[in-house]
Batch of 4 targets.
Target 1
Amino acid sequence: MAPLTYWQQRAIRRVLAAQRQEDNALVIIRRAVQRALAEIQDAVERIGRNFQKAFDLTPEQAQEMLDAPADHAEYERLLREIADMPDGPERVRLQARASSGAYAYRISREEAMRAYVEAQSVILGGKTKQALETTLLKVGAAEALGQRAELTQAGAVASFVGDNLSATREILRTPWNGGDYSSRIWGNTQALRKSLDDTIMGGFLSGRSSRMMAADIAKQMSMAYYQAERLVRTEVNRLQNAVALKELLNAGILEYEWLATLDKRTCSLCGAMDGKVFRITEAVVGKTLPPLHPYDRCIVVRHVAATVEQTRFARDEQDNGIKVPASTTYEQWSAQQGSQFTVQQKMQRNLSSDQAQYDTYRKLLGKNVFTADFKAFQQAKYYNAQAYEMLKLDYKRRNALASDPLLALPNANIATAAPEKFTRYLFNPEHADGWAKGVAFDSRLGYNVNNWEELRDAILKGAVSYPSTLKGENQHGNRYEQRMILYGIKGTPANVLVGWLADKDSTHMTTAYIKEVKPGEEAN
């Protein structure tokens, strides 16, 4: 009999081939998403032109404009969109409505927009379903063919039933986890349609610009693609493992082994299952049979006791492929990895929550050295504790102002900072008090007498972004203080205290200096 690793490698090669099929399907789905996005954004632009020409509409006036008749060209476009929809009740319903004699002459802007959204959502759902079905049939047939060839080669007494697609067809007809792939696709489609409806109609009624609405729609379509990708990856994993199990059972094999991937992407749930052996009659998807969760990469193989000489594939801390004894389980392998691997594993497992956090931070903080992209954000979070504490403090402060605009610095948008505060005070070696502060700015942030304008601009930009505290008053006006996070040009952010003097019509800077703050602690 061939070594265990031979059969495992054959199974892994089929998984990799399946992933390539998934990638092909996702290319088709991405194109469909991009087309739907472009069509819907174009419809919003066309139908919303009248809203852009009017200003300060009340909700009632906006609704009146939505109720107004749409151009006849919109009706013609809608007919073409309906013709592109896949067969189904949604197409029948829209065709019946559009065929009504008076519909072409009384269709409102709102009705046209809602019909566009529904048509594009259904077209996208249909293309997703078609791409996934094609992939599932190809993967299922390849898995059955591969299992039968290997079992025959291994000398198993096989009793194969039907052609290579028999098991696939049967499995696709069997619901799991509350539904099948088709019901999940159409469930996602209806959720997308409703979400887009709410966004677009709410945008029209609240006076959002076409550009802002286009960004909202793009974000929702991006989420639609993510859901489609998750569905494709998960459904293929479930089908491939179910087909493998059915072919093993047909060959008279009663036990299978759970095989997880030995790398940083594997979660603790899957890692704990690695190497476990189950009877085929005990297989339950989500419990004793993959997938345990969306994007699961685990597979099942026929159980054969490993020998000392045999090995299995794994990845080290640098993500290089290595060989380890075949009897090594995920938990044993994970325990042998260093601290670097533990951090990388945490980064991988927190991808979803970190991405959501990054999106929130980037929206409020804008672009800086640590929010330039998601990779930079994760590097700061897991490898630069001081920078991450500054990011959190920066978000906390700016969010305080966003939550309570009354905390804004008076006249912040026209605040000034005299050049003398920098050239004659902070960066003047003859001014002992100011020079000490200037040296700190140079050392920490890279600002000095040669680029003091950049520091001034950063402070004035921060004036509108951070809450202010009234510290007292004098004969010239009220004294305010702001605490900002400046990122400078060295990639070492600093907590900067800025003093201001404000009267009725103006606000100008009185002082600025770096004040250290301990990690996790707000500066006093």
Target 2
Amino acid sequence: MLYRWCLVDGRLEESRCRKAIGHVFQTRRRGYLGILGEFRRLLKLERARHLAIVDTAELLQTDLRARLRKALVAAYGEDLITEFTQSPELIGGMRIRVANDVYDGSVKAKLVVLARSFGLASEGQGSSSDQQSQNPLS
């Protein structure tokens, strides 16, 4: 109920969230720490739903970043926040994470798949390429 009160037209209203947290903290009803903990969890999930993390082995050029952001916004909505990070361990390619969707086109992920096909890596190792969804960028 607290979380729903903070939604305005399906989007979280920051000022309402602050008021709700302040009210719960001020009243200190029994179980208020648990309520605040659950509220924090829901806020983190909501933020993750609107956050795209793009990992690449090398930093992307500005024009490529803009095109990639445009494609992600078309797939996930206008309120998407895009973060670009450099992860040299990917060797090449990129990995995109938006909430529970992971698109892993990195060289590292392909090497893990190849190693598994030869029985060189256990099922628990590797990247999240096993959880890939259909690519909305193609």
Target 3
Amino acid sequence: MGGFSLVHWLIFAVAAVLLFGNWLAKVARSLARSFREFKNRMRDFEGDVRRLAQLRRSRVRRPSDMPYRLFRLQHEVAMRKLWKKFVWTPKFWAMLGILGCISGAYFQRVASNGCGLWCLGLVFLGAAYLEQHEYWPG
């Protein structure tokens, strides 16, 4: 009672194929093409990573000696490491606070509604101060 049996599911499947058969075939072909393209791109990416590892082993450090894609990949990895070091540090909070104060001053002058940004900037500067001096409990 209330549940679907195998016969119900078969009737539903036949109706779906009759109504959407042509469209479902197009969708299936598109999904297969997308999956093949994804596999090709992953293979290319893995090849790039292998080439980057080989370049690192051979001590190549000049960007002119490596292809642009590999240089960009190495640059992205380095930037990600720097970002992880920077985020949630006192410098990060201070940067957000200064940005909030500057944008608050701008909007206060231009549209007379920068008060919220001023307050947010001061909160971030306060968080930076507290983080720097380790006043957080715990």
Target 4
Amino acid sequence: MTQEIRAEIRLPTQELRDDLPFYTRTLGFRLDMIFPADNPSVAVLSGHGVRLRIEKGASEAPGTLRILTDDPGFAGGAKALTAPNGTRVEVDELNPPVVTPATQHAFVVRRLADQAPWVIGRAGMEYRDLIPTRLGGAMIASHIRVPDGPVPDMVHYHKVGFQLIFCVAGWVDVLYEDQGGIRRIHAGDCFIQPPGIRHKVLQSEGVQVVEIGVPAEHVTEIDHEMTLPTAQHRPEREWEGQKFVHDIGSDGVFKPFRIPGFEARDTGILAATKGVASVMVARPVGEAPWTVHDGDILFTFVMQGGMTLEGEGKDPFRLSPGDAFVIPPGMATRYSDATPDLELLEVTLPGNPATRVLYASSTPPRAPSASRRLLGGFSSGARRSECARRAHPACGNPPAASHSDQMVKERAMTLLEAATAVRERAYAPYSRFKVGAALRSTTGAVHVGCNVENVAYPEGTCAEAGAIAAMIAAGDTRIAEVCVIADSPDPVPPCGGCRQKIAEFAGQEVRVTLCTTDGKAKVMTVADLLPGVFTAAHMERT
């Protein structure tokens, strides 16, 4: 025989006859019981998922009753009411939209050696806060340790804008809605958990993860109805415009990073979130310059190895595994003295922020004086266009004076600025489509070129070809980086012939940044532009 159990919330009243119309008519509760008949002093009502017992002379305080609804006309549209018995009634949205507070930007460094406390959280997991300020509520970053063995978890989901689980040690098994059977991540792997996807942690061994949540305060709800795994396997399903991602680190391919001197592998999260965030794993391949990013949130966690984080106006920080930092937009920083085994987890929101190279040496950057902001060899009346002042991904910077009048002589001048300036000199009376190109050679010198048209159309030359010719004339033979700008709706890549010309003097990993005059940019490599390139190796038998 099944025993029935009911729970009631008791509320006091002085006069029951005054309360009943309010609770039944205004709030929509149903009267289930009332007694005694001759002089009622107790009424039991139910509705909206609760059972109320309103009792005359009860000793409790009136309390607060919260009602969540998606009906804007509930209770006449009122958001706050007071019942005759004194109970405060608050009416709120049933499913309010996720709102991320404006980011309160700050330079934050959190080191494991600082003994940040571990606290016990949900399902027995240990949490360590990596950003104590949480950037004003914009995000939370947690270093989490999960006890070995089965995890006492339930099917649940999060009401978030973005959430990442990146494994830095051990392994953990998780079930996800519509994603098939058990998913296991090891160190270097990650999940993106789209808003609302149901999931359940099963078991783990030696696992440590970094979890990123946006906003910092978000709701976790338990789903008592769903059983995982679900019957469907729908890898292309979207939750609020985002797809589930299970990235396997060992399958990743490293390509040039937004910071010169580093390479990185993409986890696919930029595409899966449609630009909401990007998650990269970066490692050093050379010396990094001073850079500035123009994104919103840039969070980095040191997974292995070590480096020194230098910041404009800040003391340098020597970082080790387990350390984390946040760099605000507009702040000049440099990653120096990196160990060969350094690996960084970088999370940016929005994804793929524009990054500018400021200075290549170890000297901290300084803003150039007004008298030194002009291009060498150009008229003193020349001014940078508006797009040259906007953020573009990593258009590099010459560390030395030029060797010809086609080079940029100002150290603080970027490739984008050089390409923008020379574009104004393009000779394009027939197409009226002006293009500027600037390239930095491996010696650090910058060479520029613009398109030159001819009434006999095939005799015209492209901007990229002009820059390469200027480089050869100056005695340089290897390209380190290229930037091209044109007045077009989207970044325009070099033509086929210019791709082959660039590949003649550049390695497959060399970055080519394509820009528009209204601020759009796209970063590619020579390998991206010209797969299957024809090289001298194809002529070895001739």
